[in-house]
Design brief:
The complex is a heterodimer. Chain A contains 5 helices and 7 strands. By secondary structure, chain A is an alpha/beta fold. By secondary structure, chain B is of the alpha+beta class. In chain B, the strands form 2 sheets. Chain B has a 4-stranded antiparallel beta sheet. Chain B has a 3-stranded antiparallel beta sheet with strand order 5-6-7, with helices on one face. The longest helix of chain B is centred in the N-terminal third of the chain and has 27 residues. Classes of the chains: A alpha/beta, B alpha+beta. Chains A and B meet through α1 and β2 of A and β5 and α3 of B. β2 of chain A pairs antiparallel with β5 of chain B.
């Protein structure tokens, strides 16, 4: 799947990640989960992720809504990773393995992996992402210059699109 | 050393509001026990407002008011008149930005052993994201200078 937006000024990867972080914590991301903690430069295994945002699915709210959420919503953790150091996706398997290990160890239910870049991705990289079929990790390539997004075809890959499209 | 200690309107309003509810409930309960009736009128409400205002402000100043000072070496966080937490940036291993709800943020400083301290940046009227990056830089700079000192002495 390929999505594109036009007519907005250029931004770099850091600007995009700041907007993504804000969108997850205060914007549309709240419809998915309560993204409440964000790390930058987060070391995991041999990798250092640009950004790592964690969330719980159970919303907080005030007294009654908190009680209702506690009674009706399961409390599992999810995460959003951003990794911009490998736009060629030469280390994609290692990145996915590292995330999968964290998901198992910390009992996260699923995760998003956002790979932003200031320029287009190669066709090979795009097809790698489109053909990746890990159920619990949604992957998206984000070209912040052209504002083009290529995502994986898994459920979480398709669902993440509207929450990571934050270029304005 | 830089210091941030503005008047925290939300925290003081919260303290006053809680005392207003407590004083109101106490007045109603006392009335019921003594007179088997509820005496409510403007003088009572005014008295309640004055008492809860005074008590709330006292509580805010002694327990809630956050005062944060920091420089290149470390930082000091004090809540009200409680004893301040004084730490060096070299004691911090990880920095994160935490959304504590209702658009308010804290910067969480993790210690080497996994414990953490929350700096209430929204209460202190610091720009949350900017202060987060400043803290990351200070922790990184301190770690680099410690590494250099260790390698020179070795």
């Amino acid at each position: 799947m390929r999505e594109r937006e036009r007519g907005t000024p250029k931004m770099d990867v850091n600007d995009y990640l700041l907007k993504l972080e804000r969108n997850l914590m205060l914007g549309g991301g709240r419809w998915v989960a309560d993204f409440n903690e964000s790390f930058w430069g987060y070391p995991l295994g041999d990798l250092v992720f640009d950004m790592f945002v964690t969330a719980t699915v159970r919303p907080k709210g005030f007294f009654l809504s908190r009680v209702a959420a506690w009674l009706t919503t399961p409390n599992y953790h999810i995460a959003c990773f951003a990794y911009s150091k490998d736009p060629e996706l030469k280390r994609l398997n290692e990145v996915l393995r590292t995330i999968s290990t964290l998901l198992k160890e910390q009992e996260f239910a699923w995760a998003w992996l956002v790979i932003p870049n200031e320029g287009p991705f190669s066709r090979k990289a795009e097809s790698m992402v489109q053909n990746t079929s890990i159920r619990e990790i949604g992957i998206a390539l984000v070209d912040v210059s052209s504002q083009e997004i290529v995502n994986s075809e898994s459920h979480w890959g398709r669902r993440m699109i509207r929450f990571i499209r934050c270029f304005k | 050393m830089r210091t941030a200690a503005p008047w925290q309107i939300l925290n003081s309003a919260k303290s006053i509001g809680i005392f207003f509810i407590l004083v109101s409930v106490a007045w109603i309960a006392a009335n019921y026990m003594v007179f088997q009736d509820f005496l409510i009128g403007w003088p009572v409400i005014l008295g309640n407002v004055l008492i809860s205002g005074g008590a709330g402000l006292w509580w805010y100043r002694s327990r809630e008011h956050a005062r944060f000072s920091w420089d290149k070496e470390g930082f000091e966080l004090q809540r009200g008149r409680t004893s301040p937490v004084v730490k060096g940036w070299d004691e911090v291993s990880q920095v994160s930005l935490v959304h504590v709800g209702y658009g308010r943020f804290a910067v969480r400083l993790y210690g080497q052993d996994g414990d953490y301290l929350d700096i209430p940046v929204s209460d202190l009227r610091l720009e949350p994201s900017d202060f987060r990056f400043e803290a990351i830089d200070l922790v990184g700079a301190k770690a680099r200078s410690t590494d250099r000192t260790t390698s020179v002495s070795a």
